[in-house]
Design goal:
Helices cover 25% and strands 33% of the residues. With 523 residues, it is an alpha+beta fold. A hairpin with a 3-residue loop joins strand 20 and strand 21 (420-430). The two termini are 65 Å apart. Helix 2 runs parallel beside helix 3 (94-105). It contains ten helices and 27 strands. The protein has helices at 19-27, 69-78, 94-105, 124-133, 158-170, 270-301, 316-326, 347-355, 382-396, 510-521, and strands at 3-5, 8-13, 44-50, 55-61, 81-87, 110-115, 147-149, 175-177, 182-191, 196-205, 213-215, 220-222, 225-227, 242-248, 260-264, 305-313, 333-342, 359-363, 376-379, 400-416, 420-430, 437-442, 445-450, 454-457, 460-461, 472-477, 489-498. Residues 29-43, 64-72, 292-303 and 503-523 have low confidence and may be disordered. The strands form five sheets. An eight-stranded antiparallel beta sheet has the order 23-22-27-20-21-26-24-25, with no helix packed on it.
């Protein structure tokens, strides 16, 4: 396999600390004056060459404002060596800390650029201390993180900064293969005059050429042209290179900024073409799973349950109604329409439904003509479907835990030993059971909840009281309960699991479903 050194450097830091000015110095442009509000709002990418030895590498510029955390996270994942820009007059700020955390989490080496040293308020020594507190020990104070003091506005020491980055690069093994499937990250998506789509992407692994097949979760498309960022034609895009890919306009809907995209090399022989088609099918299924999981990942982190559906209906307008019914999200449940089609589902869709444990909903269409292990629902009336949605949601909701009172009494006597606290209980109603839960309340407020050690009647140990007993003795471990007084109320209870139903959503009662049915089917 061919090996190639990936060279991607990220520029990160707090808002207005001079990242874009540094980029302008490297590119000899003036982007900072063009940016809305004077701040970077997108991830941008370009290539820089160190003139002395023609060393070329890719630089990723990331936003510094608090609102762009996700973009910074993407930038750190893509970066092999990071340039952390710190204002020498302000030091470490919130987004500086966030960048340090992201870079450390991804084990990205750091070179610190202490910027704006030309200003009177610059205090390099204070920056050293503040960075040290964040775990960044600079070489100037005996650490191992290199730093260069610069003025990005005037270009002071910027070449030295790039040489330092080069030295750090030389200590790392950044080689990767150029063969096989290309994996890239999307930076920009724009239409061109020929009704084609121009996608700017960074190659992460593999290689990309004209004629290769671009792959997303739902579409494939041949690459018509491969260009550099300057618009020159390229024969190949290698790891760490930013490239522009030109493809059909309909491909745009399947791309997202910061999203991952893949490509397969064009086949050369018939046998290779068959193998490639097999790889293509597997890759698309993999991408489908990735896309689906990314959409639900944040929600599931918060403990939500998910139910995925494949829909099939007799018309597109019916599908739209079903999509509305199944577009439900609460704090605990997410309903997700994974895929849908009119009149029939393909074998590939059915197989995918099985693999991700999705349920299949057929509305006013013929039953499936192949066997499947997936759960299949077949309906012709919309309120029957609404009822089924209720049942599906209710089946994954955790039950309510409710207290059921078993017995209650008044504490009339309190005795204590070194190890136990014993109370006499009278005016007993219901029954007490050993092994159940107990609470103690005072003036209407609960002061303790736990279990008891022993239960007695006339000094004899018992497992539970009977209906003819109006008093009993209860003992606790002394450290387990607070100081008790006569008149405290003791209650015995058990926890019962009560099934839950979801009452607040779009189509949850038969009455609402019937109304929806009328609105849809009436002329």
């Amino acid at each position: 396999k061919q090996r190639y050194q990936r060279r991607v450097r990220g520029v990160l830091g707090h808002v207005d600390h001079g990242k874009t000015t540094l980029i302008d110095s490297l590119r000899s442009t003036n982007n900072v004056s063009l940016e809305a509000g004077g701040i970077t709002q997108i991830n941008s990418i370009f290539q820089h060459i160190i003139p002395e030895d023609n060393f070329k590498f890719t630089i990723v510029d990331t936003p510094g404002h608090a609102a762009f955390s996700k973009m910074r996270a993407t930038g750190t994942v893509l970066t092999d060596v990071a340039i952390l820009v710190v204002d020498a007059g302000e030091g470490v700020k919130p987004q500086t800390r966030e960048c340090i955390e992201l870079l450390n989490a991804n084990n990205v080496p750091i070179v610190v650029a202490l910027n704006k040293i030309d200003l009177p308020k610059a205090n390099v020594d204070l920056c050293y201390e503040m960075l040290f507190e964040e775990g960044i020990e600079l070489t100037q104070i005996g650490g191992d993180v290199p730093s260069v003091s610069i003025s990005a506005l005037h270009g002071t020491n910027v070449p030295e900064l790039m040489k330092t980055v080069r030295k750090v690069t030389d200590t790392l093994d950044l080689t990767c293969t150029t063969e096989g499937i290309m994996e890239g990250v999307v930076f920009d998506i724009k239409p061109d005059k020929r009704k084609l789509i121009v996608t700017t992407l960074l190659v992460r692994s593999g290689s990309i050429s004209k004629g290769d097949t671009m792959v997303t979760d739902t579409q494939t498309s041949s690459i018509r042209e491969l260009l550099s960022l300057e618009g020159d034609r390229l024969s190949v895009g290698l790891p760490g290179m930013p490239v522009r890919v030109i493809g059909p306009q309909q491909f745009r809907g399947n791309l997202s900024m910061g999203g991952t995209i893949y490509s397969l090399p064009k086949p050369k022989r018939i046998k290779e073409k068959k193998e490639r088609n097999m790889v293509l099918n597997k890759l698309q299924n993999k991408i489908i799973n990735i896309v689906h999981e990314e959409k639900l990942h944040k929600r599931l982190l918060h403990g939500q349950k998910k139910i995925s559906f494949f829909l099939c209906a007799d018309s597109k307008s019916t599908l739209e109604i079903l999509h509305q019914m199944l577009d439900v999200e609460t704090d605990e449940v997410v309903l997700s329409v994974f895929d849908s089609s009119v009149n029939f589902l393909t074998p590939q869709q059915i197989a995918l439904a099985e693999s991700i444990n999705a349920q299949i909903v057929l509305f006013n269409v013929k039953p499936l003509d192949i066997e499947t292990t997936a759960t299949v629902h077949h309906y012709d009336i919309i309120y029957d479907l609404a009822s089924a949605i209720n049942s599906a949601i209710d089946g994954v909701l955790p039950p309510n835990i409710e207290k059921k009172e078993l017995g209650k009494g008044i504490i009339a006597e309190v005795h204590g030993t070194k190890k136990k606290r014993v109370v006499g209980v009278n005016k007993l109603t219901g029954k007490f059971l050993l092994g159940m839960n107990f609470t103690i309340s005072r003036s209407g407020f609960e002061i303790w909840d736990g279990s008891i050690d022993t239960l007695r009647f006339v000094k004899a140990p018992i497992l539970e009281t009977t209906s003819d007993m109006t008093e009993c003795g209860v003992s606790f471990a002394k450290h387990a309960v607070p100081d008790l007084i006569n008149g405290d109320v003791i209650e015995c209870y058990k926890n019962e699991r009560v099934p839950r139903t979801l009452l607040s959503s779009k189509f949850y009662g038969q009455e609402q479903a019937v109304e929806a049915d009328k609105r849809f089917y009436d002329p």
